[in-house]
Design goal:
Subunit structure (chain A): Part of the multisubunit transport protein particle (TRAPP) complex.
Helix content of chain B: 25-40%
Subcellular location (chain A): Endoplasmic reticulum; Golgi apparatus, cis-Golgi network; Golgi apparatus
Largest sheet of chain A: 5 strands, antiparallel
Radius of gyration of chain A: 14 Å
Number of strands of chain B: 55
CATH topology of chain A: Beta-Lactamase
Family (chain A): Belongs to the TRAPP small subunits family. Sedlin subfamily.
GO biological process, one term (chain A): endoplasmic reticulum to Golgi vesicle-mediated transport
Structural class of chain B: alpha+beta
Strand content of chain A: 15-25%
Protein name (chain B): Trafficking protein particle complex subunit 11 domain-containing protein
Shape of chain A: globular
Strand content of chain B: 25-35%
Order of helices and strands of chain A: EEHEEEHH
Structural class of chain A: alpha+beta
Oligomer: heterodimer
Radius of gyration of chain B: 62 Å
Largest interface: A-B, 37 and 42 residues
Number of domains of chain A: 1
Helix content of chain A: 25-40%
CATH class of chain A: Alpha Beta
């Protein structure tokens, strides 16, 4: 189950963060998203470690916590998407697919002429669309 | 790792035993220890001590019930025993004397050997016999004694060796021999032992699965003893898997039967985990030391996954968490020591499935801390559930014989007995020993600190911050508010910078609570204000965040309550419900509170002040407008009692008072001279600029800058805000990421765009006239006087200073670029300021006067209103050049007042006064042949040639090219002093008689003077000297100026032929006269000369017409003609053409030279009638050819 999805801007500032959990750990998810930015930074700054992924927007698994898996995605404009899921065995292809859909939702949101680039995304439509995407996606466990 | 006993942490080292000959023990054990691989030595002084390594004696004590004996997995001291007590090899050292000695000694040897054999055989220990021999008596032992000894000892011949201690090389050999044999035998021993146990494993010849695990462990340890790491690893893994199987079987049993066969459930779980931990530790160590980091991490992951769920019953949960935490801690420590040795570059092959972070110890430290926290929570729960009463029974519980087991030690007088305990007793024991231990918090903090540092080294600042956050929270929980605050404080900057409002909110909430607990009103107020002004967007407040610490979830409701609370504190109002929380936090007359907000302060969101002058330049004392704009992001309106605006010129400071709160504002402490403005209300609304515009008068010239705006709220609280210019105001931190309406601080968009908090106050207008009298262009060479006049019209002039600057109009400076490279002597300057001549009134003593070549500084005396003062600048031009003269006057209108400056400039042309030119001429009708003239056309040559010993004529012209009349005083040719050749003699005689009477040259007029030059020496070049012209302006006061111009050098030539035409100055119609052409040969050669005469209609002539003749050396030939003029007027004489054959040079007199005026009749000259020119008198001698 996806528990948190975040859009992070150029200065590593959160542009949009939403968690989908009933438990009390929403703030913990914020922390996880924030910490995983370290890995994104490292991946972006040391591209040779992740050689073949040079032109790839999907950053893969960032951060294995005990109970979550964190995946990252970097758009061409260097906006980061971070996904936190409780499914511990996820196929990359599913995550990629999710990110692709999320990216298009994000594109639509920032294409709004009233949106100022670099500011937080406050669109309710975007929030609803994200919720729908998250609900529709279920990562099939392979194992 | 320190939890583990030493023998587990280090790889096992072979143990050998030496008996007898105590004096050699130190040497031998040192040598063996330095062997590669090292060998530890158990040194027994004599054979009576041999029983220590015997099997039997120690297993008598601590007897357990027989059912218990077999139920452990690993014996606690088995490894230690093998590392310290059970040697692989025993060496018996005998002295050679003992062998060769008498029967009693031999018997003793045999007995000792016998005992040793018994002990050794019980454990399969290998035996070595060492005979210590002196170097001198090497061969003293007989062969049959050796054989007998060997038979007694039942060893191979090669295991009976001699040892020679008293010779260095022999000693070394003996030691090496001993070492080799020990090494070899130890390997055999451990292999045999291992194989023995392994056979049991392979045959499945064991009673229960515990034995399986135990045997695996033993085989692995034996393998480690002989450094067979691969085998050891394999056996450890086998043992681990066997244990896993055991766990599964127990679980199965529990599920199926509901009871367990042997140990109570809790204790068994503890034991299994303990053993698993041991196996895992060994495996990890071996993997990591083998450099297989990826495998080790995989193994750890698997280990973690297998055992993580085995939490056991709730009341002993904490044991599980502690165990799990220890797994992570130990692995982190192992990883850390390994990564120190193995460079991280070896890790680049990390497979994609495992994250990079798993390679960093920090990750494991962090999780260890997390689990320890979990444990702490569980302990608290368990303690609350199970009441702990001090039970003596628990005191006697000790670790039992097996790893991970505990038993009660019953003291039965002489012996003691281990008794099994129940799970309840065990739980109680665990809880009590937990209570005795040091607080977990310290440990958690230490772990987090390690993680934080490790993340920091790894440049993962966010993860490091997260660890710091956990650490700070832990400090907070343990009520260590100082440390907690310290760490929380460090976190804020990162979260502020990256705009993580929720995280910042949590941290600030803690900080606020810490400052409340620490009683720091200053911190409490500033944290509260910052929290209240955080951008809590509806999106983030829509989701309730529960675990946000003391501040609660970030929501508008909370923000407002914080706002209310903090303003209640600063306004010194009492809120009843908060009374008890606020005991430390007081703002009153004893504790006034003053906050400062600068450009980088996080409190800019609370109060942002922008100050803009409407004009960038103002006149002194003229009013200008200033707009003061205040912005606050606090959620509720804020009322300010009083605003004080401070400038760098404190006379301009003023205060704005809120009329509604006049009584509460501390107006009493205001300076009485201060300007006070009153407004009905000063209230700031969220995100709405409060704009106040006032006029302001500056007093002093210079910069006027608004420095601070101090807002006073309540009687003892003030916020001092650094004023900012709207033109270069930074975005508000945090709020810049929010979608909000951003208004400009001033209404006028131009001021919002370019307004500054600083304005320039001009100087007061000068009321002194500075007049530069211009006297037209200056002339090169003269001392040009320029009058400067100061007239005071409204100001008195005090400590005035006149600065004079001469600048090239092109701005290059007064030196020509090439000349500037050389030393700047005055010659190189085109224009020079010679001095300043002040009026005669003042004495020069107290004048500051500094005159340089292009710069001057003159002090001006005190002038009253209406006075004037003047001076003359004396400037000399060396070259014609226009220059710019800048004069600036600085003065104070009254003593101490700021200086006022006046600037004037004037362009002055420098002009050449006279142009001097010259011309060299030959004498009339006398033409020397100059060969150099033949070679080129007459006009093109640069250097003029003069004939030697002939008189030439020099005409010098001086033309006035100025616009003013000049008086010429004299003109002369002086010898150029530059020329050192004084022997070159030039005769110059002045023919004009104008010396006495200086002539006036009007503009454009030319003055000529004729000199004759007769070169007398045959030098090739002749310096004519220079023309020296003395002149002055036609003006009474002007001074005489000398202008010099040197004449160019001339070439001298020796003329081979000179032709002189002689003819009377005039003729009379009908009267005959004689006309000679005299050809003078100056060479020592015979010169062939052709001549011809062209007829003229105006004359009748007689004489040779056409011929070739020879002129003898150093003589002359005269052509003589008799002419009778036939008409009157200016007539052309018949032209003679003379050609020198040798030089192929032709001569024809010029038209002027061959013109004669014929009077119609004989003229009557009045003046000197007697002296009449008669050409006949000068009739030349005819020289025959």
């Amino acid at each position: 189950m996806i528990v948190c999805i975040a859009v992070v801007g150029h200065q590593n500032n959160p542009l949009y963060i939403q968690s989908f959990t009933e438990a009390d750990d929403a703030l913990k998810l914020h922390h996880i998203v924030h910490c995983s930015l370290d890995v994104v930074d490292e991946r972006v700054n040391n591209p040779k470690k992740s050689g073949p992924m040079l032109n790839e927007t999907f950053l893969g698994l960032l951060y294995p916590t005990e109970n979550y898996k964190v995946y990252g995605y970097l758009t061409n404009t260097k906006v980061k998407f971070i996904l936190v899921t409780t499914d511990l065995d996820v196929r990359d292809a599913d995550v990629r697919n999710f990110f692709r859909r999320f990216h298009s939702a994000y594109l639509d949101a920032v294409s709004n002429p009233f949106h100022v680039p670099g500011k937080k995304i406050t669109s309710k439509t975007f929030a609803e669309r994200v919720t729908n995407i998250v609900k529709s996606v279920s990562f099939h466990t392979t194992g | 790792m320190e939890h583990y006993p030493e023998e587990l942490r280090t790889p096992p080292v072979t143990l050998v035993c030496i008996v007898g000959h105590q004096d050699l023990h130190a040497t031998i054990s040192t040598h063996l220890h330095s062997e590669q691989p090292p060998i530890n030595t158990l040194a027994l002084p004599d054979f009576s001590k041999i029983s220590v390594i015997d099997k039997s004696p120690k297993e008598k004590e601590n007897q357990l019930p027989s059912a218990y004996t077999s139920s452990g997995i690993l014996k606690r001291d088995w490894l230690l025993k093998h590392r310290t007590r059970v040697p692989a090899v025993v060496a018996a050292l005998f002295d050679a004397d003992q062998l060769s000695g008498d029967a009693a000694q031999w018997l003793q040897v045999c007995t000792d050997l016998e005992n040793l054999k018994t002990v050794a055989r019980g454990r399969n220990i290998k035996l070595v016999v060492v005979i210590v021999v002196r170097f001198n008596s090497k061969d003293s032992i007989t062969e049959e004694r050796m054989v007998a000894l060997r038979k007694r000892a039942e060893v191979d011949a090669k295991y009976v060796i001699t040892f020679i201690p008293d010779d260095t090389s022999e000693l070394n050999q003996s030691l090496n021999r001993l070492g080799n044999i020990f090494g070899e035998l130890a390997v055999t021993f451990y292999r045999d032992e291992g194989r023995r146990v392994k056979t049991r494993l392979e045959k499945k010849n064991y009673g229960s699965i515990e034995f399986n695990v135990r045997y695996c462990f033993k085989v692995a340890i034996y393998a480690e003893f002989r450094r067979d790491w691969a085998e050891a690893l394999r056996m450890y893994e086998d043992g681990y898997h066997a244990l896993r199987e055991y766990v599964l079987r127990i679980q199965f049993e529990l599920q199926m039967i509901g009871t367990s066969t042997r140990l109570p459930a809790i204790q068994r779980l503890v034991e299994i985990k303990m053993v698993a931990e041991l196996f895992h530790f060994k495996i990890s160590t071996l993997l990591l030391h083998g450099g297989k980091i990826v495998e080790a991490i995989k193994w750890f992951r698997q280990h973690n996954a297998s055992y993580k769920k085995l939490t056991g019953p709730t009341q002993v949960n904490f044991l599980h968490w502690e165990w799990l935490s220890r797994q992570f801690l130990v692995f982190a420590e192992l990883l850390e020591t390994t990564s120190a040795t193995i460079s991280s570059s070896a890790l680049t092959v990390a497979d994609r499935t495992s994250s990079d972070w798993e390679f960093h110890p920090a990750y494991y430290y962090q999780l260890a801390a997390q689990f320890l926290k979990e444990k702490k929570a569980c302990v608290e729960i368990s303690v609350s559930v199970t009441p702990i009463e001090a039970d003596e029974g628990c005191d006697s519980i000790v670790p039992s014989l097996y790893v991970g087991q505990f038993a009660r030690l019953l003291d039965l007088g002489e012996t003691s007995v281990m008794q099994l305990i129940t799970d309840e007793e065990y739980t109680l024991f665990a809880l009590i020993s937990e209570g005795k231990r040091l607080g977990d918090s310290t440990e958690i903090i230490a772990l987090l600190k390690k993680a934080n540092e490790a993340y920091d080294n790894f440049k993962s600042q966010r993860a490091a911050s997260f660890c710091r956050l956990l650490m700070a929270k832990e400090y907070f929980l343990t009520s260590d508010y100082t440390n907690s605050k310290h760490h929380f404080d460090k976190l804020t900057s990162l979260y502020r910078q990256e705009g993580w409002v929720t995280l910042l909110w949590e941290v600030l909430g803690y900080l606020r609570e810490c400052s409340r607990k620490l009683g720091s009103a200053q911190d409490f107020v500033s944290y509260s204000l910052e929290m209240a002004a955080l951008p809590i967007s509806p999106i983030s407040s829509r989701q309730e965040l529960k675990d946000c610490g003391p501040a609660g979830s970030p929501s508008l409701k909370h923000v407002e309550s914080i706002h209310k609370e903090v303003f209640a504190v600063v306004r010194e109002e009492t809120l009843n419900d908060e009374e008890e929380n606020m005991d430390g936090i007081k703002v009153n007359s004893d504790h006034p509170l003053h906050l400062e907000i600068d450009l980088v302060s996080p409190l800019r969101v609370v109060l942002l002040t922008s100050v803009a002058f409407h004009e960038q330049i103002v006149k002194p004392h003229a009013p200008t407008l200033i707009t003061l704009s205040l912005l606050s992001q606090l959620p509720s309106p804020v009322e300010i009692d009083q605003l004080e605006i401070q400038f760098n010129q404190s006379e301009c400071n003023f205060i704005i008072v809120n009329a509604q709160r006049r009584e509460s504002s501390s107006i009493s402490n205001i300076h009485p001279d201060r300007r006070v403005e009153t407004v009905p209300v000063i209230q700031l609304f969220t995100n709405k600029w409060l704009r106040l515009t006032y006029d302001i008068k500056s007093v002093n010239s210079g910069k006027l800058e608004c420095t601070y705006v101090i807002a006073r709220i309540g009687p003892h609280f003030s916020i001092c805000c650094g004023a900012e210019s709207p033109a270069n105001m930074n975005d508000l931190p945090l709020w810049k990421f929010e979608e909000r309406f951003e208004a400009s601080p001033t209404k006028d968009p131009a001021i919002a765009f370019s307004g500054m908090k600083v304005t320039q106050v001009e100087e007061p207008d000068p009321q002194v006239d500075l007049i530069l009298g211009s006297a037209g262009p200056a002339l090169v060479g003269e001392n040009f006087m320029l009058p400067v006049t100061l007239t005071s019209k409204g100001h008195s002039v005090e400590s005035g200073e006149l600065k004079i600057n001469l600048v090239d109009t092109k701005g290059v400076g007064l030196l020509s670029p090439r000349e500037a490279e050389h030393s700047s002597s005055s010659d190189n300057l085109f224009v020079e300021l010679l001095g300043v001549l002040c009026g005669p009134t003042q004495d020069n003593n107290d004048n500051i006067r500094k005159v340089q070549q292009s710069f001057g500084l003159v002090s001006v005396p005190f002038l009253n209103v209406g006075d004037s003062w003047s001076c003359n600048l004396e400037i000399q031009w060396h070259r014609p050049k226009p220059i710019m003269l800048y004069i600036s006057l600085g003065y104070s209108p009254s003593s101490g007042a700021p200086k006022v400056h006046i600037h004037k400039s004037l362009q002055i042309e420098g002009k050449t006064p006279v142009v001097i030119s010259h011309r060299l001429m030959l004498p009339f009708r006398r033409d020397p042949l100059l060969l150099s003239r033949l070679k080129r056309s007459p006009e093109s040559g640069q250097a003029v040639s003069l004939p030697v010993n002939e008189t030439s004529i020099l005409v010098v012209n001086a033309t006035n090219c100025t616009e003013v009349p000049l008086r010429l005083l004299s003109m002369s040719i002086s010898e150029d002093e530059v020329t050192p050749k004084s022997k070159t003699k030039t005769t110059c005689t002045i023919q004009s008689g104008i010396d006495s009477d200086p002539s006036l040259l009007v503009p454009g007029e030319e003055f000529k003077k004729v000199f004759t030059v007769k070169p007398e020496l045959n030098v090739s070049k002749l310096n004519l000297g220079c023309v020296c012209l003395r002149w002055r302006r036609d003006h009474e006061s002007s001074k005489e100026v000398v202008t010099k111009q040197s004449l160019p050098d001339v070439n001298l030539e020796f003329p081979p032929l000179i032709i002189t035409l002689e003819c009377p100055p005039h003729g009379v119609l009908g009267e005959p006269f004689t006309y000679f052409a005299r050809i003078q040969n100056q060479t020592k050669l015979l010169q062939e000369v052709k001549f011809s005469l062209s007829d003229s209609q105006s004359f009748v002539l007689s004489g040779p017409h056409n011929d070739t003749t020879f002129v003898l050396p150093l003589s002359e030939y005269i052509l003589s003609y008799k002419l009778v003029p036939l008409s009157s007027g200016s007539l052309q004489l018949p032209r003679v053409t003379i050609t020198s054959v040798r030089y192929s040079a032709g001569f024809q007199p010029t038209t002027a030279a061959s013109t004669i005026f014929i009077f119609p009749s004989k003229p009557q000259f009045q003046s000197e009638p007697g002296k009449k020119f008669s050409p006949a008198d000068q009739a030349p001698q005819q020289i025959p050819a």
